[in-house]
Amino acid sequence: MDFGSKTWTQSMTNDWQEEAFAKYVEQQKRLDALQRQRLAERGEVLIELVGSDDDGAPSDPQFQAELSPMADTLGANGVSYSQTMMTFDAADGLGHSLPEFTVLLKTLGAPAIAAVAGVAGTWVGGRLGRKVRLKIGDLEAEGRSIEEVQALLILATDYAAEKAAEKAAEKGEVAETSSKETEK
User: What's the rounded Cα separation, in Å, for the pair 103 and 10?
Assistant: First the structure.
C-alpha cells in the first residue's frame, strides 16, 4: 500500500491528531455556549479585555498593571464582580489575573456603565488591535471604543432584564425594569 512519503504509522498519527483537535475545538464551543447560557441565567455578563498581538502575556507585570484600573473601577462603583485567575499547583507556583471579569448586571447602573466603558475604552486605546468582548446568553459582541463598550453594556443590562422578566412571568412575579423602561 502506498502512503506517499509517510509511513502507515505517521499517516494514522496525523489523522488522529487532526480528529482529536477538531473534537477539542467542538467541545470548547459547546462549553463556551454553556457558559454564556449560565451567565444569562444568573444575570451576569462576561467582559473580556482582548489584547493585541503586541501585548505581552497576561502574566507580564505591565499587562497586569493595565488590568487593575478595570477591577478598581468596578469595585469603586459598587459593582458585584469576579475576576478569573490563573493559578499553578506547585510549591513555588505563582498566579496572575486574567483579563476576564464576570459582572452581576443588576449592580451595573448608569454611572457604573459610563465609568466601566471609560476604563475599557482607555484600555482599548492603549494599543492598536485591542478590543472588549462581552458574552451573555447566546450573545457575543465586541467593542473598540468607549461609545461601543457603553452601548454593549446597556444592551447586556437590557438583555438580562428581559430574561429576568420572562423568568418572573413564568413564576407569576414582577421583575426589575430594564434601562429602557427606567429612562421613560
Answer: 47
